MFS transporter
Amino acid sequence: MPLALLALAVGAFGIGTTEFVIMGLLPEIAADYGVTIPTAGLLVTGYALGVVLGAPLLTVLGNKVSRKRMLMLLMGLFVLGNLASALAPNFGMMLTGRVIASLAHGSFFGIGSVVAAELVAPDKKAGAIATMFTGLTVANIVGVPLGTFIGQAVGWRTTFAIVAALGVIGLLGIVRLVPAMPRPEGARLRGELKAFRNPQVLLAMAMTVLGFGGVFAAITYIAPMMTHAAGYSDGAVTWLLVLFGVGMFLGNLLGGRYADRALMPLLYATLGGLAIVLALFTVTAHDKVLAAITILLVGALGFATVPPLQKRVLDQAHGAPTLASAVNIGAFNLGNALAAWLGGIVITAGLGYTSPNWVGAALAAAALGLAFWSAALERRTPAKDADRVPDEAGAGAVEAGAVTASAAPSPVHH
């Protein structure tokens, strides 16, 4: 794999850390600013909404900028947002810093997925995307618990300062290692928007929302579920989240390994398995050992869908993958927000802390149904139709990631 993928993975590690570490530091931040925990929770909501909005917005604004330069600008924005959070004198400024950092999230992973795919041979695209996302999964194993520990021991501002430093390292890696990869000639905004006319692109994004939403329906409420149903202590929840991160890491490797060989069968297996495991979680959540195993499986099956779904979007957005790829990253966060809301509804209705698992199972099953629908639609669509989406200046449709060696200087990579 090209070394440039390491630079992208470092950036992904920083982004993953800042996204999830906030959950472990909410009490300290709330106490520091004199606000309630629910109010401090706006730092999580604001970040998620920033990802959803920032993914298409910054991708469109950077439409005429080379992909390498755009990645540099996004990492700079990420560093600025985390520095603002670390130095924020009041809660409003802290929230602003979180939103600024989140704006870079979707576009970074969206554009980074395209660049990663272009750095390798067509039959290794999903593996390259998975390599970049490894940074995000490792963040949940190392970055989040370590950042939480530092924040609780030294102060939460130190955590965000360290994350900003990670962003600087990622930025320098991009400058040094990622090749100058201008946008394909003829790529224009209207050409990028044409990708959304393809029902396969929309179906893949819907699978993203529902599939990953199934994961977060359960994980959002993992703390009260494990303490009330399984009998774990509050301190043990951190290690259960580490276990979830290990599952994410393993699932990402699985998805990257097999998505290039059998993308749709992999989606059938992972989404179907996820639906079953989440349904069983309503029972296993009452046993410590079984609950821990289930959490590992939810992380693995959930994140095994990420490389194939991201590759599915790239492949179907013929010749105009950048905006579609970024919007799909926003779709992951939209799924998170939707699932957390639905999970909260069933808990409020008095159905218990394990009830969000039924919501997650239903969402994953719905995603599986969309996968079968997508495959059936693809079988009915003549192959020639898939090649009919030209970009704005009439450049031939080229599948995302199937870029020749001339597009990426040989020794340099993502």
Notes: The domain at 4-407 is CATH 1.20.1250.20 (Growth Hormone; Chain: A;). Residues 346 and 352 are 8 Å apart (CA to CA). The chain has 16 helices and no strands. The two ends are 9 Å apart (CA to CA).
